[in-house]
């Protein structure tokens, strides 16, 4: 099926004033079941829009792999780390670079993790920084994901967002801290710090 995808503008809305048909999460899943979309297609459903995922350069791949490894070393029993796998919210199904999920992988054989299952999400960001600080942050805050990290390759830092507003006119995180290259970012699960990750150990 041929389709035109309107990319998000800088403020996280659809580009221009084109009429946009938004999909529900159920419609998105129906398209996959019907073979119109494939689970391996480089797209995400974000606020009802089909959005192309950006290609990844080697530094992004390295930082993503390091983040996954370091998170996996820290998460205690009863949690696991997903890499670039879907999270299902009410209106979106993003595929974050990393997510810390409660339970075991077998718990999700019949459905992807939902916000209540997720303690932390991480995105590795270079050319997508404005996008990750915009629509992605808004989606995660609206879904009340407790902690959101942006591994900012441009500024060589990790941005940590916490205390989400949940559904609101302008969803956001109330707390924002930036950890520089010589700092250690705390990993907080269920309100408890379980360890720290040295920023320089993630950066390429």
Could you please describe the fold and organization of this structure?
With 204 residues, the chain is an alpha+beta fold. The chain has one domain (58-202): tt1808, chain A, CATH 3.90.1570. It has four helices and ten strands, in the order H-E-E-H-E-E-E-H-E-E-E-E-E-H. The protein has helices at residues 25-33, 58-74, 129-142, 199-202, and strands spanning 43-46, 49-52, 79-82, 98-102, 118-125, 147-152, 157-164, 173-179, 184-189, 192-198. The strands form three sheets. The protein has a six-stranded mixed sheet. A hairpin with a 2-residue loop joins strand 9 and strand 10. The N and C termini lie far apart (38 Å).
In short, what is this structure?
Helix content is 22%, strand content 29%. The protein is an alpha+beta fold and 204 residues long. The model is unreliable at 1-15 (pLDDT under 50).
List the main descriptive attributes of the protein structure presented here:
204 residues; alpha+beta; tt1808, chain A; 4 helices; 22% helix; 29% strand; disordered N terminus
